[in-house]
Design brief:
The structure is a homotetramer.
Chain A: E1 2-13, E2 17-21, E3 31-41, E4 47-48, E5 59-63, E6 66-78, E7 81-83, H1 116-123, H2 130-143, E8 145-146, H3 157-163, E9 165-166, H4 168-181, E10 186-193, E11 201-209, E12 212-216, E13 227-233, E14 242-245, E15 248-259, H5 263-266, E16 272-274
Parallel strand pairs in A: 8-9
Antiparallel strand pairs in A: 1-6, 1-15, 2-5, 2-14, 3-6, 4-5, 7-16, 10-11, 10-13, 11-12
Helix pairs in contact in A: 1-4, 2-4, 3-4
């Protein structure tokens, strides 16, 4: 499947501000960038970091006071792993690679240490594997209301467990927390999400199963095979589309994604989707 | 039913300390004290307060440094309301007496304002009445583990909702929170609990239904018709067996209750039990 | 001093809704209501409760779907206790009246049990008395920013202690928590506040000192001798101007207070102000 | 300076349990391991991971039911950076290396996003540099009590900010949070701490200043130039001496460190100590 993605973000910068931007499609083996363009206005110099382990591409820009416009457009071919869920096992902790282990630890918004008893009670007796993480997503979908404006940038999985309302990042944080509590490595992923309505940056989560990272979306608001991944991290604090050091007012944002070929429409939705 | 209750508490007082004690059986219309004795050693002067609305009997004592021993023994006849649960409705907020209204408000350990969405999702469609509060107790019993030492004096219903473990006071706080979130007045009650094993002060909760306060125990560890009520309040902070102002080390405690007549054994357990 | 106070509140009621309103000036020995008028539109029947211990006057009204307008106007003479702060001692717990004791307990928004160590460290060595509570207010004024919109209806003193920003109710909750932690009974009070800009319902707190309740305002935004008290309670959850059971949309509100005599301008501001 | 370090940990394993152990001295440019021995009893096979960026050396072992004994002894030469504090500047975010950026993000126990206003109020006007982080440590030392048993494995900086008591890990978490809130990268470090009394694993924190990681210890309980570093991470969840997946009972632990040369005694303590 091939997608045209684009985003624009506008700020009114008040003081010289360092922006760490993460809006470009990630460089993944299964996500090929055919063409892309990043435009800044004013055209401040961009500093590019080497890609990190998850393929995230961070930019650093220092903007001066005044309007600051960021635009990205990409033509991306996505060939996610597409496998029968039944065949995807969990990996015992004793066999996990070292660089995966930190994704078992609790993080700012994913207090897996506190959610452990619940996770074990609710999901502990389900057969390990991809289907268990799907069961986690089903639980979240059934027990948490998707309510725009019900949470904020400080809301954590601990809170969502009680408040039972949130948006995509809260759904992801809860899913991550439950997985980690069950010794399944899990991380946060942001992306351009095909068919998401209204269009916006989307947040889902990835669980490490059968030696690969598989995507999960407890909101059920987008088709996973149509997710053009941007960034990953332990939770939302690692994968913001923009992190600002300085003072700038967010003005507006626009996000879009379009399928560029016919295949998209015919994709099955019941299969496990992985990023590798 | 008639019960012999007793308790002893021992402290090592470090500095002159004011004790607010609440260990005597409450003076309720349906709980008649046939005989009782309170012994302090040393025999410090006791200041008795007029009984409060819930029948709680508070004592104030100032103890000097050294050992301080409190002993209470009572012979109490309990004739709780015993009614068919089906016939006990909820009282619409528009018809509640004023002095009952504060029991709808959130309190230190019962954040009913935060647990509202969950309570409405889970219990909102159940027919109002005594059976709905029983459904609340069943949910707590099924979803929270009774684990000695899993909580402390600062643990609130918000925490228990996530941690899913607690002791009797945590079970009561959760029940109270759910009730209040559903506009059912609810309060915390402490007591001597027949058949509780091991013997200890027990905590349950009361919900205001059909114009009376009915008892509920989500722990299912004691027989409600065998609860000799001591104190009530918005939550545990109002109904401690002892509140200390000063410095004293808690040494040990012993609590006991025995049924004094045959009837106890024959009591049905499926009926609604109220204190009036 | 004599004040003309007024308030109007407008709702769009969606479903039949019970309103517990608390907008009328309290009936206090030191606050005489010379004239007043409460107008509801539509003119639903009002149910008045007997005044509670703190003089709060609650109304209960059931409103049907449609617009609902509440208006209150009062002409109130305030003769607060006006005493030299130095002469006002704290009351040892061993000498507090029973009905005052609950104001030592933690409550939903005032976790005095958790703030105790800080309170004792920071204020424990200050001489007991009115001046110590003033020191508490000074600390809050210096260490917490008054920022409109920085907190919400769920924000507690625990949060404000970390976040260091809030509005009048948060300042009051923090003051109450510190007092209770130091064994000074304290409670939340709402009122019409002379010279508050912009005009709004105001929140302050009361501490029980020398056998009377004295007013404190850590925000320093209003003159305490010009506070026309409305309601009191353990914290904001007990003293809302309106508590709704049902569904209604808050539309707008207007609050006003004017001094009706010259004396107001000449009032000293350094003295202790009490409600009795 | 040269140190002999040793530790033993004993478990009673209940079910086959994966241990991720982190007890060996880290492999750092400025910390040379002259000799060492790791002994497991039973002698289960050890899996060693490549050293991570911070030099931490993790081991993975699967232990079967029964007693499990871990012993480590090392002879380590430490040559920390020793520089005049005045000459060590903060690094502007615009100039930080990419792999340092995550240490600006909030983490499970370091909610720097919530502590930002306080940190800016209290430390925002202090001149940037090593001395500012020392000021942070001084503040913590003066405002938080070191109280064994006052916190647990779930206690976060948010809690410590209110509760004002904790142990070394809580002091470190608070220091890390304040640094991150001020845009100073900071991370958690565990180690063998010379002169710590009683001997135990110690926790301190590192701040990234002038292009190097410098050590800070707000507890003032150990000499930083005598810290033999073991592990680092975003917070305590990344740097546990042992993380268990399975069921095992912790039995006992013993930790020791001795200076092997004279120089130790003569070390100045006022200088900045860095690990590079």
């Amino acid at each position: 499947m091939r997608f045209a993605v684009r985003s624009t973000i506008d700020y009114e910068v008040k003081t010289p501000t360092v922006f760490i931007l993460n809006v470009e499609a990630a460089a993944l083996r299964r996500q090929r960038i055919l063409a892309e363009a990043l435009t800044l206005h004013p055209a401040y110099p961009i500093e590019r970091f080497a890609e990190d382990e998850g393929g995230s591409r961070f930019l650093r820009v220092t903007a001066e006071p005044g309007p600051f416009h960021v635009a990205y457009a990409g033509d991306v071919e996505v060939n996610m792993i597409d496998r029968a869920p039944d065949a995807i096992p969990e990996v015992p902790v004793g066999e996990l690679p070292l660089d995966i282990l930190p994704y078992l630890n609790p993080s700012r918004f994913c207090q897996s240490d506190l959610l452990g008893r619940f996770a074990r009670r609710e999901f502990g007796t389900i057969d390990p594997g991809h289907a268990r993480v799907t069961a986690i997503c089903n639980w979240i979908h059934e027990h948490v209301d998707y309510v725009r404006g019900s949470s904020d940038a400080q809301t954590s999985a601990y809170d969502t467990m009680v408040l039972r309302a949130g948006v995509c990042r809260d759904f992801a944080h809860l899913g991550i927390s439950f997985c980690r509590a069950l010794n399944i490595p899990a991380r946060f992923a942001s992306g351009y999400a095909w068919q998401l309505d209204p269009p916006d940056f989307h947040a889902v989560f990835e669980a490490y199963l059968g030696g690969e990272w598989f995507l999960f979306d407890a909101t059920r608001q987008a088709a996973l095979q149509g997710l053009v991944r941007i960034g990953v991290g332990r939770d939302a604090s690692d994968a913001a589309f923009a992190t600002l050091y300085g003072e700038a007012e967010f003005k507006e944002m626009s996000v879009g994604i379009e399928a560029m070929d016919r295949r998209a429409e015919e994709e099955p939705t019941v299969r496990a989707v992985g990023v590798g």
